C-alpha cells in the first residue's frame, strides 16, 4: 500500500487488550486503517481476530487501550459508545439475513430515516447486481447472492467502516474465488473503508491494501501483501502464507518458498548436495514435489509447473536456488 495513496485514518486501534477473566485474548493491539482502503486481519483460528472486530463494533468491551472511528473515540477507559452509534456496518460469516423479508426489505432494514429510503435501497440493489431477485426471500437465493445482500445491507447506511467476518468461508471453492473478487470490486467502486477478518492467506493477499498478521492475540506484522509475503517478520508469519524451505548455502540458512527452488539433474563430481524425490502431489497447474535431502535436513517442498517433466519417486536430484546449486 503506497503511503501517498491513502492519507486519512478512518480507524485507529491503540494498545487495545481484551480479557475474559484470567485469559487474555487481545494483548496491546495496534493498527490503523486508512480511509478508502481494505485492511485484512489474518491469523489462525483462536488468535483473536473476531474478538478484535467485535470490540471495534462495540459488541465486546475492551480492558485497555483506545478505539477511534472517523476521529471519534468510541472505546477507552472512560467511555464505550453503543454499537448502533459507532457507524460500523458488519457482514457476518453466514450473512444473517432475515428469512421472512425480501432482498429489498433486508437491505432497507438498517435505514432509520424514511426519507430517500427507497432510492437508497434501489441504489444498493443495482450496486450488487441483484435487481432480478430483489423480491425474493433469502431461502430462494444462492450462497453468493445472500452474501451480496448482506454486503448491500451493510453499505446502505453509508457507514464509516465496513467489517467483514470470514464472509466467504462457508462457500465452495469456486464460488468463494468469484465472490471474493466481486466484493473487492464493489468495495473499491463504492469507496468503502473495510476491515476484513480472515484465516485465508489467499483472501488476504488478493483483497487487501494492508495485511495485519495476528498471532496469539498480538500483532506480529503489518505491511502490504507483498511485504508480509516476501519479507515475513519470522517463520510463523511466513508459514501462514504457505510452505517454507530452509536451505544452507555456504554455511548460511536461507528461507525460501517452494517456487523459488527448482530441481536439476545430478552432475557427478560437482559436490552438489543431493536429495531423493519422496512424494509428488498434482495440484492442477503445478506439481508439489517433496525432496528428502541426502544426509541431515528437513524435507524440501518444490513447485514444478504442470507442463514440465516431474522426476519419478526415488529419483536422485539436485536442488537449485536461483543460479546457485545446493
Structural class: alpha+beta
Strands, count: 18
CATH architecture identity of the largest domain: 3-Layer(aba) Sandwich
* Mean model confidence by pLDDT: 90
Apparent shape: globular
Helical coverage, percent range: 10-25%
CATH superfamily of the largest domain: P-loop containing nucleotide triphosphate hydrolases
Q: Estimate what percentage of residues fall within beta strands.
A: 25-35%
Name of the level-1 CATH class of the largest domain:
Alpha Beta
Q: In sequence order, what are the helices and strands, one letter per element?
A: EEEHEEEHHHEHEHEEHHEEEEEEEE
General description of the model:
There is one protein chain. The chain contains eight helices and 18 strands. It is α+β, with helices and mostly antiparallel strands and 326 residues long. Helix 3 packs across helix 4 (143-155). The longest helix has 18 residues, at 173-190.
